[in-house]
Amino acid sequence: MLVKKIRIKELTDQEFNIMYDLINNVENTVLDLKTQREIFTRNISNKNNFYLVAMIDQKGVGYLRCDKQLISSKTCPDKIRDIFIHFDSPEIKEELINELRSIIDRN
């Protein structure tokens, strides 16, 4: 059980370092910075994708990627493309999916 508050927010193009650190932690490696920045820029600029990031104390601890068309069709939680969770935490995963459902309900 997590003690600290999880904050979920939509990922923006300004948050490369959060994602880079998160993916390196999840993969237990250090990926090439330039290559990862190119991938991140390409992915985040794709307007068909929607990203949420889970934060604890300004540190990325999880993220979720879903197709925006699926959000409008209300099927996104069943069709999540990627979900990475540091610490393999069910609480973080649940918070990400709950926020996605909340976004779907508002659309």
Rg from Cα:
13 Å
Please state the structural category: alpha+beta
The profile of the biggest β sheet is:
4 strands, antiparallel
Kindly, what is the distance between the CA atoms of the first and last residues, rounded to a whole number of angstroms? Answer: 31 Å
The helix/strand order is EHHEEHEH
Explain the overall architecture.
This protein has 107 residues and is an alpha+beta fold. It has one domain (7-106): Aminopeptidase. Helix content is 44%, strand content 23%. The protein has helices spanning 16-27, 33-45, 68-72, 90-106, and strands at residues 7-10, 49-56, 59-67, 82-85. A four-stranded antiparallel beta sheet has the order 1-2-3-4, with helices on both faces. Strand 2 and strand 3 form a beta hairpin. The longest helix has 17 residues, at 90-106.
